[in-house]
Amino acid sequence: MLLSCTCLYSALLLLGCDYTSAVRYDPTWESIDSRPLPSWYDEAKLGIFIHWGVFSVPSISFPPYGMVAWFWTYWKGDKLQAFDNYMKANYRPDFTYADFAEQFTAEFYDANEWADIFNSSGAEYIVFTSKHHEGFTNWPSNHSFNWNSMAVGPKRDIVGELANAIKTKTSLHFGLYHSLFEWFHPLYLQDKANNFTTQNFVNTKTLPELYEIVNAYKPEVIWSDGDWEASSDYWKSTDFIAWLYNESPVKDTVVTNDRWGSDATCHHGGFLTCSDRYQPGVLQKRKWENAMTIDSIAWGFRRNAEIKDFLTTHQLITTFVETVSCGGNMLMNVGPTKEGRINPIFEERLRDMGAWLNVNNEAIKGSRPWSHQNDTLTPDIWYTMKDSAVYAVVLDWPMGTTLSLAAPMPQTNTVVTMLGYPGPFQWKARPSSGLDITILPIAANKLPCKWAWVLKFTNLENV
C-alpha cells in the first residue's frame, strides 16, 4: 500500500532532509507519479543543459530550421534543399554523416574547466547529452559499436570525465539527457514499420543503454527525450522508472522528466517539461521545468549565429524569475564547439547569472510560489516566498521616486529592504490595497547588482 504522497513529502520537508525511498513503486504511471519529488530538485531552481555530439561538427542551421542537433535528419531524412546544397558545396560527393565523427575532435575539452564555468553560474545541477537522436554515445557504450566517443572522434569517455569533474570539484548534481530513439537505426525503423508491435530496438538498444549509464555514472537526473512517435508501453518506460526508483544506485535522489512516450509528456513522470521553452506564465499544479536556450534559435553550437540571436543577461534573468515565481525550474542550455570549448558568450551569460544569484539567491533557492505571481499594478514585478518573507523581483529600475505595488498588504511593523543593500526603505500604505515604496536615489555603482533588484518584505499581513 502506497503512503500518501503529500503526507510523506511534507514530513520529509519538516525534517529538513531529502527524499529516501520508503515504499516500492509498481511499473504503472499511477504508482510512479505518487513518488514525492526529491527535495533537492525543487530547491535548486537553476540547471545547465549541455548539447554536444557529432552534430557539433557541422554546427550550422538554416532558417526556419534552427535545430543544429537535427542536421542529419534535415539533410537525409527530410531532404531539405538548403542542407543538401550546403553539403554539395563544401564536402566530397560520397561524404556521409558518419564521416563527421572523425572531426568531433574535442581536443580542448577540459571537464574541470567546464565544471568551474558551470559552478560559477549559481546553478545547482547540470544535464549533459549522453546520446542525442543521431545515436552517437558520448560514453564507451557496449550497445553502440563503433558509434561512440571512445571508438571514434574524441577517443575518450566524455560522460565519465564530466561526471568525475562535477562530482569531485563542485556540489552540483550531475544529470544525463538520453534520447530513446535514433533516426536511422534499422531496428527502430523496423519496429516503426511494424506499428510498434515489436520492441527489438527497445530491448537491445534503449533499455540496455539506460541501465548502463545509470549504473556507470549514477546521474541524479534522467532527462528523457525522443519519445513522441510511440507510447510509453512500447518504450517500457514504467518498467525502467520503477527499477530506477526501487533498485538503482540513485533510487533515493534521482529525478526524471515526463518524456517517456506520446501518452506521458506533460502528464507523467517526476517533473513536467511539456514542450521546449515551456513557460506557462501562471502557477502550475505540478512541478515543471523550462528547458530553454541562451541561443534563442538552437540547442547546439552554431557557427553561423549572430549576436542578436543570444538572449541578453536581462532577458535570461527575466525568464528565470518568471519561471521560479510560477513554481518551475529553468534548465539553461549551452552548446560547446566540436573542439570542446564553451563559447565566450555562453560563459559570460553563465557567470552573469552567478553574479546575480550571489546577491539574490535568498529569494530563489529553496523559495516557493507566493499567493501572487506578479503584480497587477506595476508590470515586470515577480514574487517568490521563503518562510514568512516575501520577495519582489523588480526587473526594471523604477522611474521616479515611488514604486507602487498592489499585491503586498502591509502592517504597521512591515519592513522593506533590498537584498545586498543596507538599511530599510520607507513606505506608506495605499488607500485600497498595497503600498507605495520610496525609491532612494542610489548611484549606479552602489547598486547591489546590474540587473533585476529584489525587495524583501517581512511582517506582511497576507503572507
SSE blueprint and pairings:
Elements (H helix, E strand, L loop, with lengths): L4 H11 L13 H5 L5 H6 L1 E5 L20 H7 L3 H10 L20 H10 L4 E7 L26 H12 L3 E7 L6 H8 L6 H18 L3 E5 L6 H4 L1 H10 L8 E2 L31 E6 L19 H13 L2 E7 L9 H17 L20 E6 L2 E6 L7 E4 L9 E4 L5 E2 L1 E3 L5 E4 L14 E6 L5
Parallel strand pairs: 1-2, 1-7, 2-3, 3-4, 4-5, 6-7
Antiparallel strand pairs: 8-9, 9-15, 10-14, 11-12, 11-15, 13-14
Helix pairs in contact: 4-5, 6-7, 6-13
Question: Overview of this structure, please?
Answer:
The protein is of the alpha/beta class and 463 residues long. The protein has 13 helices and 15 strands. The strands form 3 sheets. The chain has a 7-stranded parallel sheet with strand order 5-4-3-2-1-7-6. Strands 8-9-15-11-12 form a 5-stranded antiparallel sheet. A 3-stranded antiparallel sheet has the order 10-14-13, with no helix packed on it.
Summarize the structure.
The protein is an alpha/beta fold and about 475 residues long.
Key structural traits:
single chain, 463 residues, alpha/beta, 7-stranded parallel beta sheet, 13 helices
Assembly of the depicted chains? single chain
Total beta strands: 15
Number of helices: 13
Structural class: alpha/beta
**Percent of residues in β-strands:** 15-25%
How much helix is in the residues? 25-40%
Rounded to an integer, what's the Rg over CA atoms? 24 Å
Q: How would you write the strand order of the largest sheet? A: 5-4-3-2-1-7-6
Task: Report, as a whole number of angstroms, the end-to-end distance.
Answer: 36 Å
Give the overall shape, derived from the CA principal axes. Answer: globular
Largest sheet: 7 strands, parallel
* SSE ordering: HHHEHHHEHEHHEHHEEHEHEEEEEEEE
